[in-house]
Amino acid sequence: MASKNMRVGILSAGGDCPGINAAIRGVGKTAIVQYGMDVVGIINGFNGLVEKETIELYEQQLSGILTLGGTILGTSRLKPFKIVEGEDPRTKPDLIKKHYKELGLEALVCIGGNGTQTTASLLAQEGLNIIGMPKTIDNDIWGTDTTFGFDTAVHIATEAIDRLHTTANSHKRVMVIEVMGHHAGWIALHSGIAGGGDVILLPEIPYDLNLVAECLMERSRKKKPYSIVVVAEGIEKSSKKSAGAFIAKQIRKITGLEARETILGYIQRGGTPTSTDRILATQLGAYAAELIHQRKFGTMVAKQNGTITSIPLNKVGGKIKLVKPDHPLIVEGKHMGVCFGSCS
């Protein structure tokens, strides 16, 4: 199968994430060096295809970006298949198909999270040659064991928890740290265990504030001078306050203990990716180029049981990989006295 002069597009969509540039580099360099393909960068996600805003990518432009955070191509949260009142629902998809053809693209790599993979699947159904690449700090994309960006986010959150231990101990207070995770608690679980959290609250496990309060009071009765509470941002949807602020307020109200919240927010998404994320992004990127060479389109690259492989895109869209209540880290945490806010 000849790949020389095959014209391939790459875009990054959704939220920024450590490792995107490593992924772009992995796809681009493999496509150019190994297979002699031409590579086109699509600017600002799917919006770049709607507006026909692109840049030619050559090997020298892909050098020196491995360690950079963010994305050299930019990103946007545009969802071209989203129904907008007063707008023809076919406008954006048809423009994307038109510009894909005018740019001479024979394949398009879509780097992004759940929303991006859903859009990628829909574009594949429209007849475009699509390869998906899973990217998110939340680690919640179905079909892959892990996503690049996750390890960096966990590293950043864990370091923050480590630092909060000293402040909590100095002031003898409860420190509540809120990490990202609207629907899935992977960052909270991993950073909470790695950082020695005493209470870890996840969106997947309903929590009882009275159980949380009792855990903290029991620690106080045992003369343990402070406690660390790690919460995912998605655990509390009924309050107008952030999850961290809500939990800290309730702890003060129920227990009388001094409690303060820290919200990490976008800090978890930025900066240099860890070596683990660089390697994973490079592996996935290189394999995406190989799939293009083999013309195995309509697929998403994935890591399963330690092996880089691919799965059909139509099996990914609309699904979320959640933390199961019997996850080994939860079971082991409970054995060590970690409270997850539930009796079960």
If you had to describe this structure to a student in words, what would you say it looks like?
- The strands form two sheets. This protein has a seven-stranded mixed β-sheet, sandwiched between helices. A four-stranded parallel β-sheet has the order 7-8-6-9, sandwiched between helices.
- Helix 1 (about 20-35) links the parallel strand 1 (about 5-10) and strand 2.
- By secondary structure, it is α/β, with parallel strands linked by helices.
- The chain is built from ten helices and eleven strands.
- It has two domains: about 5-150 and about 275-315, Rossmann fold (3-Layer(aba) Sandwich); about 150-270, Rossmann fold (3-Layer(aba) Sandwich), CATH 3.40.50.
**Strand content of the residues, in percent?**
15-25%
Structural class estimated from helices and strands: alpha/beta
Helix content: 25-40%
In one word, what is the shape? elongated
Separation of the first and last Cα atoms: 55 Å
Q: What is the arithmetic mean of pLDDT? A: 95
The CATH architecture designation of the largest domain is 3-Layer(aba) Sandwich
Secondary-structure element pattern, one letter each: EHEHEHEHEHEHEHEHEHEEH
**Which residues sit in consecutive blocks of at least 5 with pLDDT less than 50?**
none
Q: Can you list the strand order of the major beta sheet? A: 3-2-1-4-5-10-11
Q: Rg to the nearest angstrom?
A: 22 Å
